Amino acid sequence: MSRCMIVEKSAVVRKVSKRILGADDRSIIEAETAAEALAMCDAQMPDTIIVEADPADMELVEFIRALRQMEGGAVPVVIVAMIEMDLVCMTKAKRAGADDYLLKPFDRAQLLSRFEQVTAAAA
């Protein structure tokens, strides 16, 4: 069973994402803040992380770098959820170690399609 983490300050977006991704055989965990997510990753690294582009408590690049520097060998797929195509943010996130992007708001088909594409490419 794969594990996916959703890092998002909006409880509604976390709930919708969890409902969509959890329908298949996936374990979904949620974090409201980047710091909370890093603590959870330190305990057990998920296979995939969907993180909003503007976490409330730290810069996105800082979060991705901290994630990529964690020891333990597991390297999760990181998908950044953005409300607009921001080339500067996308480039910085990619250089820090993000794997792909997803535009918000998304629907069931968009989220599942992007998730499957990115995780299949990483496998």
Automatic annotation (TrEMBL):
Q: Does the keyword Phosphoprotein apply?
A: yes
The UniProt entry's GO biological process terms, in alphabetical order, are: phosphorelay signal transduction system
Q: Which SMART domains match?
A: REC (SM00448)
Q: Does the keyword ATP-binding apply?
A: no
Q: Which Gene3D superfamilies match?
A: 3.40.50.2300
Q: Which PROSITE patterns match?
A: RESPONSE_REGULATORY
Q: Which SUPFAM superfamilies match?
A: CheY-like
Which InterPro entries does the record cross-reference, listed alphabetically? Bact_response_regulator, CheY-like_superfamily, Sig_transdc_resp-reg_receiver
Tell me the keywords, alphabetical order.
Phosphoprotein, Transcription, Transcription regulation
Protein name (Swiss-Prot/TrEMBL): Response regulator
Native source organism of the sequence:
Oceaniradius stylonematis
